[in-house]
Amino acid sequence: MTTWIDAWQPADGADRARALFTERFDAEPNGVWSAPGRVNLIGEHTDYNGGLCLPFALPHRTYVAVRPVDSDRIRLISAQEEGIREVDLSTVAPGTVQGWPSYVAGVAWALRQAGHAVRGFDIAVDSCVPYGSGLSSSAALECAVAVALDELFDLGLAATDQGRTTLTAVCVRAENEIAGANTGGMDQAVSLRGRAGHALELDCLDDSVRHVPFDLTGHDLALLVIDTRAEHSHAGGEYAARRAECEQAATLLQVRTLREITPDGLGDALAGLARLTGPEGDGSAAAEVLVRRVRHVVTEIARVQEFVELLAADRVDEVGPAMDASHASLRDDYQVSCRELDLAVDTARDAGALGARMTGGGFGGSAIALVRTGDVESVAEAVAAAFAGAELRAPTFLVATPEGPAA
Ligand code: ADP
Ligand code: MG
Is the per-residue pLDDT at 280 higher than 90? Predict the structure, then answer.
């Protein structure tokens, strides 16, 4: 009675996108490109604080079939959406494109803004990355478009890691400015720069990366992803509020980002914050709230370092406590968990998981659990039963393995 979201074989995904293209545009695409969704192992809400995170690219990918045209017209179709949409690239600007085409047109717009000669195109999209599950279907779409346009318009960026770092920034601009979602850079970075068999330690202060071997099967372990299927409509507002609180705390502490606060300096920083309250009635968050937010960010960055050291020492079976501590910090200090995420995490642990935590921004989306290979089914069944008992929507599951980047 558990539902599994299997990844498509790459050749199948490419065939689907190509077939959709030829059927709807009555022509052949020049090629098919794809990019993965991701899960984050640890390091949540750290990216926009100049911190560290540790995502890896999923086998679940978004496929785009594309043909350039000799004008500024973009025509778009997606197997996940209704109808053909059309956007004039020369008129794209913040606020002008509604709905899903903004993620695609935004990438073309941001490339142009960066001085690249990009024209219009026809594009057909199909994907096995579930929407809104915290697995970053939005970045998968942007990054697939980015590598497609890179090749079709001869930009040469996808050929080097430095170029891919530029494409990452392009996709972040598309999402922030054209799609209007104020997210950090983790999702796009791992979709473009991840490596099969590895997790990506991403330093969001300078965009540097370290590929950390992530071998679960050798330890008879698996990473179970539980999509709670919960969507809380206030998630976007809460995300913006957390970012604003972090900026406010950084300003009060006179640092550029919270990354500058080290674990050793945390006690002093928190004591300082507790003394500093904004002028009454100016809308700024209370000191108590800022203390919690800063404590989460600083301890979470330290947990990423701890997790990476364990992976580098081939001690992946010992990362469970760091995952548990991350969840507690996100629930109690950052306050971005919800009933469904807590239930998934607690139930997975009770059913034998070595560690479990929410992943992604929170207020719904997915949780991850590190489980023995032989326990994958029973842990999933226990979570499904707990959700049924609580009269919650049935969760869905997938087993995540680290796969390759956009290509
Ligand atoms: P996620 O956590 O999956 O990234 P977001 O809300 O950030 O959730 O992004 C989901 C949005 O991205 C969808 O509502 C849609 O606008 C766009 N999107 C993602 N994948 C596709 C697709 N295959 N076809 C069309 N639009 C897509
Ligand atoms: Mg997204």
Answer: no
**Do 183 and 175 meet the contact criterion of CB atoms below 8 Å apart?**
yes
Ligand (nearest to CA of 13): 1
Distance CA 373, CA 154 (A): 44
Ligand nearest to the CA of 131: 1
Q: Which residue in 122, 126, 150, 187 is the catalytic one? A: 187
**CATH number, domain containing residue 377:** 3.30.70.890
Ligand 1 centre to CA of 138 (Å) is 4
pLDDT in tens, 24-83: 999 999 999 999 999 999 999 999 999 999 999 999 999 999 999 999 999 999 999 999
Closest C-alpha to ligand 1, atom 15 = 100
Are 132 and 256 members of one domain? no
Residue ranges of alpha helices (H) inside 313-398 are: 320-332, 339-350, 376-389
The pLDDT of residue 277: 61
- The vertex-235 CA angle with 62 and 273, nearest 5°, equals 120
Indicate the top mutation candidate among 125, 127, 131 to test ligand 1's pocket, ranked by most ligand atoms within 8 A of CB: 131
Give the residue, by CA position, lying nearest to ligand 1 atom 23: 127
The residue segments making up the domain with residue 316 are 217-400
Question: Is 356 found in the same domain as 308?
Answer: yes
Residue linked to tokens 């993965």: 36
Query: What's phi and psi for 114, nearest 5 deg?
Result: -85, 5
Which residue carries 């972090």 as its tokens? Answer: 246
Q: Is 187 annotated as catalytic?
A: yes
Cβ-based neighbours of 216, under 8 Å, separated by 6 or more: 222, 223, 316, 401
Residue nearest to atom 27 of ligand 1 (CA): 100
Domain count, the chain: 2
pLDDT at residue 230 greater than cutoff 80: yes
Q: What is the rounded CA–CA span in Å between residue 5 and residue 154?
A: 35
What is the number of the ligand closest to the CA of 236?
1
Ligand 1, residues at Cβ distance < 6 Å: 62, 78, 80-81, 100, 103, 125, 127, 131-138, 141, 181
